[in-house]
Amino acid sequence: MSSGFTHRLAQRADIPAIEPLMVASIRGLLRDFLPPDAVEASFDIMGLDTQLIDDGTYYIIECEGVIAGCGGWSRRATLFGGDHSAGRDVALLDPRTEPARVRAMYTNPAFARRGIGRLVLSLCERAAAVEGFTRVQLAATLSGEPLYRACGYEDIERFEAPTRSGLRIPLVRMGKRIEAVA
């Protein structure tokens, strides 16, 4: 890869390195979009869903041995949230009638705006297409929304996710058509 980035599937052994990257990403990239208390409340609804690692659908993006970002996709019904989030649904989606989910995308703030998100999206979309999906959906944070829109995702609905503190975090369900691979 000419960008200097490499990618691989995440393994459970990567979790200790992924978790601090997620914290840095949430705190560093959401602060321009949400007040400090809402950024902290976001941890209730964001984080790593280890089901993605177990399913072999979660990617690590590296640059010279440093994790620059991560993200994945899912063939399961959960739209967003980590292992600790309420309302997770592990039911398998039907690729003929339901969209795959793009999930848990995080970029190390030191690598922001260098193509990490685009790379993760292309990996996810390609893998979902190989499994017969023709659509993908995601729940975008306000900081991620411009990237997804630039990559062809369109708004489906705006909503707010409740947190334990009572704050509600604004999210945007977005979707995109992809070409299934025969």
Largest sheet composition: 7 strands, mixed
How many β strands by DSSP?
7
Low-pLDDT residue spans: none
Strand percentage lies at 25-35%
Terminal Cα span = 26 Å
Give the integer mean of the pLDDT values.
95
* CATH level-two architecture: 3-Layer(aba) Sandwich
Q: Could you say which structural class the secondary elements and strand pairing correspond to? A: alpha+beta
The percent range for helix content is: 25-40%
CATH superfamily: Gcn5-related N-acetyltransferase (GNAT)
Q: How many separate domains make up the residues?
A: 1
Number of helices: 5
The CATH topology annotation reads as: Aminopeptidase
Order of helices and strands: EHHHEEEHEHEE
Sum up the overall morphology in one term.
globular
Radius of gyration from the alpha-carbon trace, in angstroms: 15 Å
Sheet with most strands: strand arrangement? 1-2-3-4-5-7-6
Q: What is the highest CATH level, the class? A: Alpha Beta
Describe the structure.
With 182 residues, the chain is of the alpha+beta class. It has a single domain (5-177), classed as Gcn5-related N-acetyltransferase (GNAT) (Aminopeptidase, 3-Layer(aba) Sandwich), CATH 3.40.630.30. Helices cover 27% and strands 29% of the residues. The protein is built from five helices and seven strands. The chain has helices spanning 15-30, 36-41, 50-55, 116-130, 145-150, and strands at residues 5-9, 58-63, 66-74, 100-107, 135-140, 154-162, 168-177. It is globular, with a radius of gyration of 15 Å. The two termini are 26 Å apart. The model has no long low-confidence stretch (mean pLDDT 95).
